[in-house]
Amino acid sequence: xxxxxxxxxxxxxxVLVGVIVVRVAEKQQKPAGIGYPISQSLDxxxxxxxxxxxxxxxxxxxxxxxxxxLIEGSANLGDxxxxxxxxxxxxxxxxxxxxxxxxxxxxxxxxxxGHKGWDLRLNADIPMDxxxxxxxxxxxxxxxxxxxxxxxxxxxxxxxxxxxxxxxxYEAVVDGxxxxxxxxxxxxxxxxxxxxxxxxxxxxxxxxxxxxxxxVSPGYDTSPNRVDLLxxxxxxxxxxxxxxxxxTTQVCAPKRSEWPLHN
Length: 263
What we know:
- This protein has 1 helix and 21 strands.
- The longest helix has 15 residues, at 2-16.
- The N and C termini lie far apart (77 Å).
- It is 6% helix and 56% strand.
- The protein is mainly β.
């Protein structure tokens, strides 16, 4: 009887303090193949923290509008690979994590199609804190229409093309590692860009002025759409393009090294 009363009290605590938490953890394991569905409802959330950790192959990430889903898409899984998801809602805030997992010691082999990858779309109508790990391979991240409050991309071993969000004021941190990294800054989005590499190279194109070691767009401080961008690379080739700036194009040359050419 005592245990039963304690159990009821534990259940009642969230109601008493006015907090509702819904937590769902799921492990999805299917045979290697094409088009395994990825989907998560918003469950009436109005903002979200989203974490995506990809494995090996090609990651494609885009946007969707007027949807009741937080994320939707498909995954072509390799042998010995599965997806692991977690969803937690605290009042109107959703916390969502999607990870690639593998039981094999060696990297998972491609499925029957010979291609391994995820093709995902995120809800573009709610603000979100977004963290992406691109894994190994390649990534095309078209985030232009998203409402992002903060962005982190770890592209340490994946050749990545990233289009930044066009709306709002936010910070973005991008780690390049050993990858080729191209970052597009949308037209109408002002930027404050810091780029650092250990042994790699960097090129920054656009209508920027140099302010110490930073590249800064005209009118950055007063723009309603602006990004404070930090790009870090180990031995990466980093290219940053300010789109829409080419009518008055300025090219900011590499500060430390020349752009290496493919043989």
